[in-house]
Amino acid sequence: MSRLLITGGSSYLGQHLVPQALAGHEVVYTYFSHDPWGWPQGRRLDLRDGVAVQALVAETRPEIILHLAGSNRGGVVMAEVICQGAAHVARAATATQARLIHLSTDVIFDGQHAPYREEDPPAPLHEYGRAKAEAERLVQAHANHVIVRTSLVYGLTRPDHGTAWVMAALGAGQPVTLFTDELRNPIWADSLSRACLELAGLDYRGVLHVAGAQCLSRAAFGLKLLDYWGVTARATLQLGRTDPTRRPQNCCLDTGRAQRLLQTPLPGVDEVLSRPG
Ligand SMILES: NC(=O)c1ccc[n+]([C@@H]2O[C@H](COP(=O)([O-])OP(=O)(O)OC[C@H]3O[C@@H](n4cnc5c(N)ncnc54)[C@H](OP(=O)(O)O)[C@@H]3O)[C@@H](O)[C@H]2O)c1
Fold first, then answer.
1. Total count of domains within the chain
2. Ligand 1 center to residue 165 CA distance, Å?
3. Which CATH number goes with the domain that contains 258?
4. 125 alpha carbon to ligand 1 midpoint, in Å?
5. 3-class secondary structure per residue, the chain
6. Is 71's C-beta closer than 6 angstroms to any atom of ligand 1?
7. How high is the pLDDT of residue 75?
């Protein structure tokens, strides 16, 4: 049992990871605008406030910080939360000698050179990718870190953000385009949570690509999830192609290192969706 601090416990991923973590660890989780559970382990934290981050880490003395929090809403706030947040968390981890597991993304890559390995240089195309790439750079200032680069996160008990948006738009009769040329290897939130908790207990340091075994287009992925969630209203759904200068096309990650390192399986979408309920 370790003492864990999980930032962004209220995130989509956090809502899978925190309950798993509580089963085997002493946990404090943070939220910003909403606490999904109202449990005594929850603490409100604004990551842009460096003094507050230092104070919470000094008070709770985590052995491991799992830094999930971030924002992809765009604009100044997004960059502040991602970059200042990463810098504040890394500084606090250094001050208390905590191990830091930082969540990053496949869209730090340009989408032209897949499959991407851990050593490949970031080349982000958009604002969110640039902020997450900068956050990686800031986290590397702390020696005992792992940068977990992952892909689209989905779950089986509640639709992920992207799927929820598509379902709402289709339900309202609004046009939705699913891209056939944007390739990703989506990961089941349960697998990613387990992998992060396993990594917390290992000595591995540096970047690790943790994503699902199956590389497929966002269109194929989206259609599989619409089937899973039983969405039949698809009159306004169309398939389309992306603008490769604005959005990375193929960000599939080479996950060989994670598969060799971790005992946690990283199944692909078809395997996860065909699991007996
Ligand atoms: N979802 C994906 O497909 C995906 C793909 C690749 C990588 N990732 C990475 O995985 C991590 C989790 O992603 P997610 O999609 O699950 O996140 P999410 O659902 O968008 O949640 C964002 C989290 O950040 C918190 N937050 C926002 N502003 C904050 C602030 N000023 N101070 C402190 N916390 C703040 C939110 O708290 P409140 O909700 O309480 O406001 C929430 O817990 C992120 O690092 C993300 O980059 C996600």
1. 1
2. 16
3. 3.40.50.720
4. 20
5. CCEEEEECCCCCCHHHHHHHHHCCCEEEEEECCCCCCCCCCEEECCCCCHHHHHHHHHHHCCCEEEECCCCCCCHHHHHHHHHHHHHHHHHHHHHHCCEEEEEEEHHHCCCCCCCECCCCCCCCCCHHHHHHHHHHHHHCCCCCEEEEEECCEECCCCCCHHHHHHHHHHHCCCCEEEECCCEECCEEHHHHHHHHHHHHCCCCCEEEECCCCCCEEHHHHHHHHHHHCCCCCCCCEEEECCCCCCCCCECCECCHHHHHHCCCCCCCHHHHHCCCC
6. yes
7. 66
